[in-house]
Structures are given as C-alpha cells and as structure tokens.
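Researcher: Please translate sequence to structure tokens.
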Amino acid sequence: MIRRTNLTEADPKRPPVAWLASIELSSDIVESGKERGIGVTWLNHSSILRADWDSLKRIDRIGIDGTLLQLLLRSHGIRVRRTSADMCIPQVLKSVPHARIALIGGSPGVAKRAGLRLNNVVCVSDGYEELENILNFPNVLTVSPPDIIVLGLGAGLQDRVLVQLRALVPAAIVITAGGWLDQLAGSEQYFPPWVHAIRLGWLLRLLREPRRLIRRYTIEAYQATQKSPLLVSRLQSISTDEYKELGIRGHGADFEAQG
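Model: Translation complete:
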C-alpha cells in the first residue's frame, strides 16, 4: 500500500533560518518549474571537491548546503543563505501534491522503499544498472513523463545525469537529493526539526553513519578549507548576482540554447 509520509517540516512557532530560506527556494523551484521545467542541485564542502563544473554551468539553480561551505564563502566575502535538499524536496512535493514522481538513485531497493512513503510514484530506479538502462532506453521517462524527478546519486554523477534528464524531460522539475532517498527509505523523519535550528545535522548523520561519513567531516573538511580560494573562484565564475542570497546560481541562460 502506498501511503503519504509526514515529511519533516519546520516548527511554525520558531522556524530556523535555513528553513525559511529553503521554503523560499522551494517556492521558486515550483513556480519556475511550472513555466519551463527546472534543474536544481546543491553543493557542500564535500561534493564541491568532486564537482562536475561543466554540468554545473548548465543547471538552473545551485544551492549551498552545509555550514562549512557557507562559512568558507563568507570568509571570501560571499554571503549565501544555507538551504538543503532534505528541507526543499518535502516542500516541493507538498506544493505539487498530485505530481507524478520518479525516484532514481541509491543502492538496489532504496528508491523502491522510499517510494512506498510517497504518493503517485510512477518510476523507481537504483543508481546502478537500472539507471544505466534508463539512460540507454529512456522511454520509461519520455512516453509518460513524470512531473518531478528526484536524483539521489553521488557528487558529480548526479549533476551529469540531471543535465541529461533535463534534455530528455524538459518540462520536469529535476532535483538532486544527496542522501535524502536513503534517509526516506529508512525513516520518515531522519532529522528532528530542532536539528536544523542548532545546525547539528552533520553531527547526527556522523553518529548514525560513522563509517560512511567520517572522511567527509575530517579529511574532506580540511581539503575544502585548504582549497577554498580555488573553489570560491570557480563558484564565482558560474554565479549570478540576482540569486546569490539563496544560492550561487539562478535564472541561468535558456536551457535549450545551452544544449
């Protein structure tokens, strides 16, 4: 039986700043997506080390997720409000309750389990052989296109796939999810609302998934700090001033012209 999850929402009495920014970004995603589709991704201090810069130049919105990257940008004079996939995606789905949804990513079975917590999921695929089949034979997406495609793939790869799917399903909202699919597959409320308010999401994830995340919050944090001048320079080269409060890139050039 498919049932709708009570996806994590902000405490309306005292919403954290990141929630307010994410709600604003979510509204922008929905409204812009209605007009001509949209592609959205995020960067944090870990994913930026493996970023596919050619793909990022072709993505409509790039948000900044994670306090460390936000602070590194601030140290170079760039103030960006923090948002994240796990806060934005539930808001987008809530805003378009009858949207047809495709979930792509994770190890075998993850997307299927996550799909059981949502309504109107029309396509699920893991991030391995099933993803390869979709890219080689995309009829499953193009014959009856979904309205929203959620991609939970690794850094770099998910942005390359996002660009491919934007070309295949140009009217869809295509949004990267980081680890959100894994979180949704395992728990309806991975992050309690208070976690975002005190910016300890990274610590909770580290405690829950130490083997997978210890490198991210030690070695990669150090690497991002040391390489921050180069990384910031690259971000500045693809940024747009009109969107810098909510993210490093927005309202980009016409996607079809870029293709």
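Researcher: Any highlights?
Model: The chain has 15 helices and six strands.
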